[in-house]
Amino acid sequence: AQKVTQAQTEISVVEKEDVTLDCVYETRDTTYYLFWYKQPPSGELVFLIRRNSFDEQNEISGRYSWNFQKSTSSFNFTITASQVVDSAVYFCAHYGGATNKLIFGTGTLLAVQP
Amino acid sequence: DTEVTQTPKHLVMGMTNKKSLKCEQHMGHRAMYWYKQKAKKPPELMFVYSYEKLSINESVPSRFSPECPNSSLLNLHLHALQPEDSALYLCASSQARLGIYNEQFFGPGTRLTVL
């Protein structure tokens, strides 16, 4: 079955700390996509990154970086030098042909304190 | 224009009311989606339209009725809802290219309260 697990329900850090959000997935698809979305209190889901299953290269975008490891079925997200504006719920998600829909993890609430 | 808009932002309705949620995008996307998100939960897919045709219905009760009048618009008609239907309703759109999955762009949602 397709499943996305975000074991960290809530994380609280102080501004400028680095923080890593964990994501572990289960899939029976050989080709699939992984995503991270940010949901601030306003409610809109903001797309952050898409990774396909053939591309294990890590990616960095400014203060954000992603570590995709197929061997451990993990797709972790690190925010370097966190800021108050990073406070939000972050969802990891999986898409594959077996379900043909985006499967979200339960989300991690990140609170960055000033 | 790279946004998905939704109206209204907030909606309060009684169980006997009929109301509609609207979603619009002008990115040329041909796939549009409705999700329901309860508090502190992830979004759950309700419906998918591809090229203006309903392609996925996740066994949603008939009191929710989707409509896609054209490639830019998506409606969700509501009738005889229950208090447990109170949630954030999110619309999304994406390109629809066969064999490739494209990221979905989400609107800000409509917060629905059913009394």
Structure description:
The complex is a heterodimer of chains A (114) and B (115). Helix content of chain A is 0%, strand content 55%. Chain A has strands at 3-5, 10-14, 19-21, 24-26, 32-39, 46-52, 59-61, 64-69, 74-79, 88-96, 101-104, 108-113. Chain A is globular and about 45 Å long. The N and C termini of chain A lie far apart (41 Å). The relative contact order of chain A is 0.35. The mean pLDDT of chain A is 94. Helix content of chain B is 0%, strand content 56%. With 115 residues, chain B is mainly beta. In chain B, the strands form two sheets. In chain B, strands 2, 4, 5, 6, 9, 10 and 11 form a seven-stranded mixed β-sheet that branches. In chain B, strands 1-3-8-7 form a four-stranded antiparallel β-sheet, with no helix packed on it. Chain B has strands at 4-7, 10-13, 18-25, 31-37, 44-50, 53-57, 64-70, 73-79, 87-94, 105-106, 110-114. The A-B interface holds A 33, 35, 37, 42-47, 50, 91, 95, 100-102, 104-107 and B 40-43, 45, 48, 56, 58, 88, 90, 92, 101, 103-109, 111.
How would you concisely characterize the structure shown here?
The complex is a heterodimer of chains A (114) and B (115). Chain A has 114 residues and is mostly beta strands. Helix content of chain A is 0%, strand content 55%.
